[in-house]
Write a structure and sequence with these properties.
This protein is of the alpha/beta class. It has 16 helices and twelve strands. It folds into three domains: 96 residues, no CATH class; 247 residues, Alpha-Beta Barrel (TIM Barrel), CATH 3.20.20; 63 residues, no CATH class.
Length: 460
């Protein structure tokens, strides 16, 4: 029987109403020469825009250059506000042309990408009084500079201290990027002697099986460094998994498409892993569906064709992905391009980014809503990375959560048994009475002690 003679079958009656076209928006990716909307890039052809070298060359690294680039397309009041914002920000400025072209310059104040990378002085909120520069205590758990060994079988290897762009909410603003007017950075330059100390420690610890290669950002590693680091780790008998962590796929996917030497190095390390029965994956960082374009899809497809697993770790950000619409579309769009949503982090307590934080309750509500919208393996886990070194805890696994004072208490029995770790919701999201209590330093410890007592005596 040929295809021409196959019987026409009736479609079984549907149990669900016709799908709303809006439910399919995750497959509608921005394409075409959208960058030409920016006057500075109006004459840039596709081949040039897709060249990672051009993207790097014209990445903006000074506030005055960024502000000049948006003059004429953003209101002067916004430009002035951003200039004042950069003067107060703990992170240096670094914005790629690709990223700049994705911002809606007709409404930059509320644009979800602008919020992440360009600070506005008018939006700053006072830092929470319990916030610290290294809020996760990574340096305290580092046996050698740039290597954090917190979990029993996993270590975080900070191999470099630069990124293709700098996020306002970076949890490593203590080390990443250049010094700013408000922060003098810890030095984690890509030096071979520092790496050698890390390799020696990793090899000496038979329980270490899983290494995250981060920084900074693996995108900024030279191709020969990718090969060297990957090979050194995979040749250690104890290592079973390595992950290269990068924001780059979200902000400069052109590197995957046009930097053949870098991509070949990643493929070679991945192939070595497959040959030796070990996993090599890439972890990336999309926060909003507008960051995912047809260019992103092409970059992921190139990795997919080589069998490289790509997972995503988002940060829960106020005004970016803290609604069911934005988070739901992000999760579905990631799945559409074959990126597995892995984690959504409740925003770490980072200096200069209080306006971007939201509550643990928001995470709980979003997780409940997202689950069931897509396959389980494409459903992220919402986590709190417990301040002080408790590590990642499921957001809903708190021992106690006082929504009035905004204090949630977590334990980490497999990481630091017997200890309690407190996370603090942003004060401006609390009741007026609670805000008044936080305005009085004399009441801080009493609120914390009350939460800890509840956690110890009446755990959730």
């Amino acid at each position: 029987m040929t295809d021409d003679t196959l019987p026409v079958l009736d479609v079984p009656p549907a149990l669900k109403p016709p799908v709303d076209p809006a439910e399919l928006a995750h497959g509608q990716l921005l394409d075409g020469d959208f960058w030409r909307r920016i006057p500075a890039y109006a004459d840039v052809d596709e081949a040039t825009f897709l060249d990672h070298r051009w993207q790097s060359k014209y990445t903006i690294t000074r506030p005055d250059k960024l502000l000049r680039a948006i003059e004429g397309i953003a209101p002067q009041g916004f430009v002035d506000d951003a200039a004042a914002g950069f003067a107060r920000a703990p992170m240096a400025v670094r914005v790629s042309p690709y990223l700049l072209s994705l911002i809606d310059w007709k409404a930059p104040e509320v644009d979800p990408l602008r919020i992440q990378f360009i600070p506005l002085a008018s939006r700053f909120l006072p830092d929470h009084p319990k916030l610290g520069l290294d809020s996760l205590g990574e340096q305290a758990d580092a046996p050698t500079p740039g290597l954090t060994h917190r979990y029993p079988d996993k270590a975080l290897f900070l191999v470099i201290d630069t990124c293709p762009v700098y996020c306002r909410f970076c949890t490593r603003s203590y080390a990443v990027g250049l010094d700013t007017d408000t922060v003098e950075k810890v030095q984690l330059k890509p030096k071979k002697d520092r790496w050698s100390q890390a390799f020696a420690y990793i090899a000496s610890r038979p329980e270490l099986e899983d290494i995250v290669i981060s920084g900074g950002d693996a995108f900024n590693l030279r191709a020969d460094w990718i090969r060297e680091i990957g090979t050194r780790l995979l040749e250690m008998p104890n290592i079973r998994r390595i992950r290269f962590a990068t924001k780059g796929l979200a902000v400069m996917p052109q590197k995957i498409l046009s930097d053949d030497d870098w991509f070949s190095a990643l493929v070679e390390v991945h192939a070595l892993g497959r040959h030796t029965g070990k996993e090599v994956a890439l972890h990336t960082h999309f926060n909003h569906p507008n960051e995912i374009t047809a260019i992103s899809q092409r970059a992921v497809a190139r990795m997919f064709s080589e069998g490289i697993t790509v997972r995503n770790q988002s940060v829960l950000l106020r005004g970016v992905n803290d609604t069911t619409d934005s988070m739901g579309l992000l999760v579905k769009r990631l799945g559409h391009i074959n990126v597995h949503p892995y984690y959504v982090y409740v925003h770490d307590m980072v200096k200069g980014a209080e306006d971007m934080r939201t509550t643990v309750q928001t995470a709980l509500d979003l997780e409940k809503w997202v689950r069931g919208t897509t396959a389980g393996f494409n459903t992220p886990t919402f986590v709190v990375d417990a301040p002080g070194g408790g590590g990642k805890r499921n957001a809903h696994s708190y021992e106690h959560y006082d929504r009035e004072t905004g204090i949630s208490v977590y334990t980490a029995p497999s990481v630091k048994p017997g200890q309690y770790f407190a996370y603090f919701d942003p004060i401006d999201r609390l009741s007026e009475a609670a805000q008044a209590r936080w305005a009085d330093p004399a009441q801080h410890q009493a609120m914390i002690d009350a939460a800890l007592e509840q956690a110890r005596n009446n755990p959730a």
